[in-house]
Amino acid sequence: MTYGITFETANGFVQIDSDTTNTGLIVLNSVASSSSVTFDPQKELVFAKPASTTYTNQRVAIRYPQNYSWSGAGNFTFEDSLGNAVLMNYIVAKWSNEQTASTSGYGVQIYNSDGDLAFDSTLYTGNGGIGIIAFAAQQTLSGYGSYGVTSRMGLDTTKYYSMNNSYANGNDSVFFGVEFNKSASTANGSGGAGVYWLSYFTVYSFDGGGFGSYTNFISNFTPRFIAEGGSV
Hints:
Structural class: mainly beta
Shape: globular
Helix content: under 10%
Number of helices: 0
Distance between the termini: 29 Å
Strand content: over 45%
Number of strands: 18
Largest sheet: 8 strands, antiparallel
């Protein structure tokens, strides 16, 4: 850093650095044990983890509302690969530069050299903070879920994992989501405990040879983030 201001957490994670083009995350909402979330996928980020502490393996993705126009805010459901609702603890956050800077009141505002709003203390409304602590770049996770380790995003099932661009449709033929696995067993090719990207679609066919199907696994088509909450 050559000028400006930088804040780091006790763990060394950068919260604000006015010498970069990065902007901070503002927490808009945090909810415990809910199977639905209202947010704008184009502007906001959802990080979540299972509310239950007794599960062994939990698959989860976001199911879009039936009449969603693929633009703006909506009410989305957390579901497993079979269409069952899943209770999740979640955080909704938004990049600081997507927010409107306050023009009155008291506090601190920080802009980086590009003029982006990096921090505005008046936007923090008691929901605590959040920081991204790790990520998997696009197309670096195989999509096989907990089979092997090629799709493992992290080992800690208590962290928050990004849910944007996940997809569930109520049946097991299409699923793009996250698999939380607490079993340490590596039997039958399992990668053991951890959190995995699970993404696939199944194609069915029927011809003279009878009924058949095959499943295609898909690598992560967007980056996947791991986050750590502050007081949330």
